[in-house]
Amino acid sequence: MKKLGAFGAFGCVAIIVGVALVVGLALGLMVMGTYNSLVSLDQTVEAQWAQVENVYQRRADLVPNLVETVKGAAAFEKETFTAVTEARSRVGQISGEALEGVMRDPEAFARFEQAQGALSSALNRLMVVMEQYPDLKATANFRDLQAQLEGTENRITVERMRFNETARAFNTKRMSFPTVVIAGFFGERFREKPYFKAQEGADTAPLVKF
Q1: N or C: which end of the chain has fewer CB within 10 A?
Q2: What is the pTM of this model?
Q3: What string of DSSP letters covers 106-132?
Q4: Is 147 part of any domain?
Q5: DSSP label at 101?
Q6: Helices 2-71 and 78-92 meet at what angle, rounded to 10?
Q7: d(C-alpha 26, C-alpha 48), whole Å
Q8: Mean pLDDT in order along the chain per 10 residues (210 residues)
């Protein structure tokens, strides 16, 4: 009877240990699956952010040629040219290193968006001024720049929208239960992503028609 009792106690312990191992394994697999899912979504956001940077850089690269092209026909519009050049310079001051963690720093993201918005505003003012110079609008070089700028503005709109979609997918997953608990264990690694927001006057399309 004593042997049977000892065997029974050992069996109970074995069952408890077995259940604990199974539960621990299940939890481990769940954490691993959640982590991998967050990594995948995070990489998707990172990839889309690279696309956003590319189209903004494309626009910044167009600015010097645009300014030089119109200077000859509107040399006295110095204030407008200065505003565009300074806005582009502020965009350029946001270095690559500063942008590496921009999606984990809402303030840095806001500074980036503000700088790009200032450049958009300055370019819009330049376009309005150029409406007064029909001879300039007739040149092939200016028409080419017009087409490139218009295409780039459209790309910016599309890539910002796609970024918001990927950020929303990440944030939805990250804030759901139990993912929100697991994500919290990794600190800044899976911080909630920011969104591009509509700027003032966004309901009016940018004026890039000459």
Answers
A1: N
A2: 0.81
A3: HHHHHHHHHHHHHHHHHHHHHHHHHTT
A4: yes
A5: T
A6: 160
A7: 33
A8: 57 76 77 91 94 94 88 75 90 70 84 92 87 81 88 94 96 93 88 84 46
Residue 6 pLDDT? 57
pLDDT at 142: 84
Burial of 139 (0-12, 13-18, 19+ CB in 10 A): middle
Calpha distance 103→140 (Å, rounded): 40
Is the residue at 17 inside a domain? Answer: no
Assess if residue 187 is contained within a domain.
Answer: yes
The boundaries of the domain holding residue 172 are 53-210
Q: Which amino acid is at 163?
A: F
Which residue, chain included where needed, has tokens 């890039």?
Answer: 208
On whether the CB atoms of residues 31 and 182 are closer than 8 A, the answer is yes
Note the pLDDT of residue 202.
47
Owner of token pair 């000859």: 72
Look-up: residue for tokens 């074995």? Answer: 14
